[in-house]
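Below is one record:
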Amino acid sequence: MRPAAIDWTPPDRAEGDPRPPAQWRRILALFRPYRGRLTTVGLLVAASAVVSVISPFLLRAVLDTAIPQGRTGLLSLLVLGMILTAVVNSIFNVLQTLISTTVGQRVMHDLRTSVYGHLQRQSLAFFTRTRTGEVQSRIANDIGGMQSTVTSTATSLVSNLTAVIASIVAMVALDWRLTVVSLLLLPLFVWISRRVGRERKKITTERQKQLAAMSSAVQESLSVSGILLGRTMGRSDSLAREFTEQSDQLADLEVRASMAGRWRMNTIMIVMAAMPALIYWAAGLTSAAGAPIVSVGTLVAFVTLQQGLFRPTVSLLSTGVDVQTSLALFQRIFEYLDLPVEIAEPPRPVGLTDIRGEVRFEAVDFRYDPEQERPTLTGVELKVPAGTSLAVVGETGSGKTTLSYLVPRLYDVTGGRVTLDGVDVRELSFDTLSRAVGVVSQETYLFHASVADNLRFAKPGASDAELVEAARAAQIHETIAALPDGYDTLVGERGYRFSGGEKQRLALARTILRNPPVLILDEATSALDNRTEQAVQQAVDTLAAGRTTITIAHRLSTVRSADQIAVLDHGEVVELGTHEELVELDGRYAALLRREAPEAAALSAAALGHA
């Protein structure tokens, strides 16, 4: 019995949730390891802002002093100073861009690796509840969507804020009255930008959810299995229509995200663009009425500074909108980072050096869900001495596969304990457990890589000779050697270049390389033809020799030689003994044997008739 696969979704947050300040602290904490570089960026930004406001004062001196008085030497020095400020400012900008982009990319790297590493520590239950496309979307789309914010926003924020402050100080120094006029509408602009930011944040959350849904659809329907299912069921056109609808919804969200608040932000830019004209108009009116309030040089320098104020102000407002939009992405990433680790390595793990391989189930209870009405396993008591074999049989849904999950800690027991050489598996280090227990599951997974790479996944440093030896033991070497590229042959998506029996033997060869003292075999021979089954069974027998072996049996003919056979019924061990003992008992096991006999005979007859 396994949990139903459903989409994992985070709980909705109520309005006024006090978490945003904490979220800001977490975002700032991402930059903490790079505070030295960020300090350098801050100094460069401050220096750039100071240099930028020098130029208008030089311009005022040119217009009010050098040109009217005909002082060509002073004029040349002032012009040279203006050119030098532009050059120095450009150098500062390049340096701060280089450092800030480097820091941003390191933060992106830290986020990606943190999310990936955290997901690697999640239990199998999380991945049975969550679509693969959803996970991929969080790592690729959400973190990728934060790139501009993380790499440039922090620098842009500091740079523009410094430029605004420096410009306001310089404007006040030129004329405080014109400065007051220039800043009257600034609070309104800030309010408008905050409204736009909240609107875009909401749309961004919807957009990322839609991207995740599309990623899941692509991952599921364009895999080899998805293509086979779609075509054989005649649903290819239907899948294409569904994808078209999802893409259409995403396109609408992209337009909404792009246009949200666009008119309001453009109104701000129009007003700011009109301000210099209003300043000239005000200065002209005062000149017509009497003595001008400022000189021509001061007026031109002030308008230049005003433009230097408006540009970073608009940029600051836009940055604020982008930051609020990115908060939605950060929130989605933090939701994954906040997932509790259900199966964690103990603070002081036990490391076994000489592993004998004795496995015990002591009063084991297990539920996939705390609210599950009936437990999947109840009071399981089993002892598997080192080097012996245990076969677990029973009806479908009796808990056989679940029992096998508990030894390698794919799930943790909810009652009792599972021990390896007398030590609770929950107290063992992950490294010890992975070296001690090898699993050949019913569902063989192969990476889209070469045969050699798939085998070396179990032992990265394995030599070519070791690969060949393991493949021979798994009865697959001759098949591999006959391929044009031999061990360099790509296996294809999920191993689709190989048959079911060949994939199963490749998985066995991979486990042989690992050489674990305890072996979990979720038998996969029931769906194979007789010849392939015999080859796979020979490989299984070779692999199991001398190891503690727990076999999840779906075909009873494969477990007659097991040292012990446990019969599960609704999660309870109802019979335990050897094949002969259980046959003589004439209970559940014997009934399963009698039911399997006519089915096997019918299958053999059908196979002979087909031949």
